[in-house]
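$ run holo --ligand "thiamine diphosphate" --emit tokens
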Amino acid sequence: MALSTLKQACQLSRLAGTLRPAIYLSARGFAAEPAQEESETITLEVNPFKGHKVEPPSNVVETNKDELFDMYKTMFLMRRMELTADQLYKQKLARGFLHLADGQEGVPVGMEAALDFDDSMIQSYRDHCTYVGRGGTMKAVFAELMGRVDGPARGLGGSMHLYHREHNFFGGVGIVGEQIPVGTGLGFAHQYRDDGHVAFTIYGDGAANQGQIFEAFNMAAIWNLPVVYVVENNHYGMGTADSRASKSPQYYTRGDYVPGLWVDGMDCLAVKQACLFAKKHALENGPILLEMDTYRYHGHSISDPGSTYRTRDEVSGIRRARDPIEHVKQIIIEHGWADANELKRLEKELKAQVNADVEEAKKSPFPPEEDFYNNIYVDGLGAKLRPIEVGMDKIQLPKGPRGPSADASTH
Ligand SMILES: Cc1ncc(C[n+]2csc(CCOP(=O)(O)OP(=O)(O)O)c2C)c(N)n1
Ligand SMILES: [Mg+2]
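-- output --
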């Protein structure tokens, strides 16, 4: 499809709320591809799925050149975004918490290839790539990290609180496991509205033994809610290996009566196939659990070097054998669609795009001072923080026993 036609299609489908993110990235000029005919379908084998109480889908997947280029470019951009966020933090331009997902890019990219933006999604604090997969911009991510108003939380939320209401991305939440009951509620909303869409509820292996998960599974199964639970098993919860935290780290089996699939989460095509299957299953039969076997290259957060509880060899071994971007790059090269030099040139363009987005984000202003007092109380109640009356230009302690006459140093 010619790029101009693609852009028109994107504008139309954005209005209809069903835009697919890879195409969205192309439309924003990331894909400096020459105009080309629609590419022909090819089939590839992915690592076989393992099923729990369900017959797994075939491991032969259909794809094409355009889709693979889009996946490759989107994952590459996500990787650069995460590495750039690391740099911004070290330069003290980004502040607060920061959890990076480099290594895990195959999951959001494969997931979004199977969904549209009318399906809803909720994620943990490791949310930058998920947000971009949902059609959020990298400029907005950088702006949020640097506390600027062009971030999705107007610079007040930071890394853990990305959000995209128009594309049904409900965060970005900081409390481990908090998103699981909320995502179950999103599934309830889809069922109640009978809108033919599903809720993808994503959590980590470190959340997978919490009690609230099993309450959520039970409710979703009793009511046949269209919820796809996705456990991103990156094999560590902070510095604790999954085998030390879980009696049974076979998370795809842990829903008991909820069927599950083990998925090679380092292969975006396997993820796509599993998500297509899971969406259909959830709409027809109720909840299903996908275990995405994946890996994070960075430490748990920016303050964790990530090398005390695992060996450097383990990290470099996974990078060599299973890297999600290298995998797709190899497919592209093997099919003769581009050679290594052409891809290098393309990567240079993509890096320049990320740098340009950072510069744009830096132009975004910090929030105005009054934002400090907004979003605390319902509008109209005024900025009253007990026991202190707060105004923009004054802080007055009330008179009386808790006022200035009391010992203010006893807090
Ligand atoms: C209820 C709760 N307990 C503990 C924490 C501290 N904490 C933050 S992240 C984390 C590990 C979670 O690991 P996992 O679910 O595997 O996600 P990952 O970080 O690997 O993406 C913990 C214990 C928290 N944020 N919330
Ligand atoms: Mg984990």
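-- notes --
The radius of gyration is 23 Å.
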